Amino acid sequence: MGDKHNHKVLVVDDDSDILELLKYNLVKEGYDVKTAEDGKKAVQLAKGFLPELILLDIMMPNQDGVETCRQLREIPEMADSHITFLTARAEEYSEVAAFDAGADDYITKPIKPRALMSRISALFRREQKSKSKSLPKVMAGGLTIDKTSYTVSMNGEQFTLPKKEFELLYFLAQNPNKVFSRDDLLQNIWGTDVYVLARTVDVHIRKVREKIGDGYITTVKGVGYKFEIR
Length: 230
Known about the structure:
Layout: E1 8-12, H1 16-28, E2 32-36, H2 39-49, E3 53-56, H3 65-73, E4 82-87, H4 92-100, E5 105-108, H5 113-132, E6 137-140, E7 143-146, E8 151-154, E9 157-160, H6 163-174, H7 182-190, H8 199-212, E10 217-220, E11 224-227
Parallel strand pairs: 1-2, 1-3, 3-4, 4-5
Antiparallel strand pairs: 6-7, 7-8, 8-9, 10-11
C-alpha cells in the first residue's frame, strides 16, 4: 500500500454495486477514492478533488460518460488526468466516440478486480517513470512542446492538449521525418498492456491537426504518420 503515494481516483458509474466493489479494491490498494453515480456529479466532484485517474461508465442517467469526458477535459487543472472508460458497451463506434471525447483508455466489462488493479498500478508506474526522466522542450517547425508543463506554444500562443494528444505530438516531434505505423504509435503512447483500436490513433491525429494545423503531421498512405520538418 505504501507505494501508491495516495494517488487520487474518481469512479463514476450508476451501478451502486460496481461503485462499492471498485472503491473497496482501490482503497485496499492504498488509493484515495471518491465516487459519483452520474456524469454531472462527477464533473462537479472532479473540480475540487482533481483526480489523477477517472474510471468512467458510458450509460448513465442525467449525463452520459462521453459528454462527461468532454467536460472533464475542459477543466484546465485536469489536463494531465488519465480518463479510462470502464463500460459494457463493446461497439467500435462507442469506443471511437470515447477517444474522440478525450479518453486515454477503454476497457469493456466485465473485468476482474485484480486485473483492473494491475492495470492501474502499471499506469501509475509508467507515469512515475516518465516524470523521473529529464523532459526537455522540443522545438520543431515553429512549435514549442514542453512536457514539463504539458503545454504547446505556436505563434506566441500557448495552449494545452489532452494527455494522449500531447504525448502523441511530443513523440512524433521528437522523431522528425521518421514514419511510424499505427501499431508503433499504439505501443509507444498507449503501451503494450492497454488494448485499443488502431482507429484510435487516427482520431487523435485528427484532433491534434485541428489544433496545430495540417502542416506538421503527414499521413504516409498505407504506412502511418510522421512529423515533417521541411
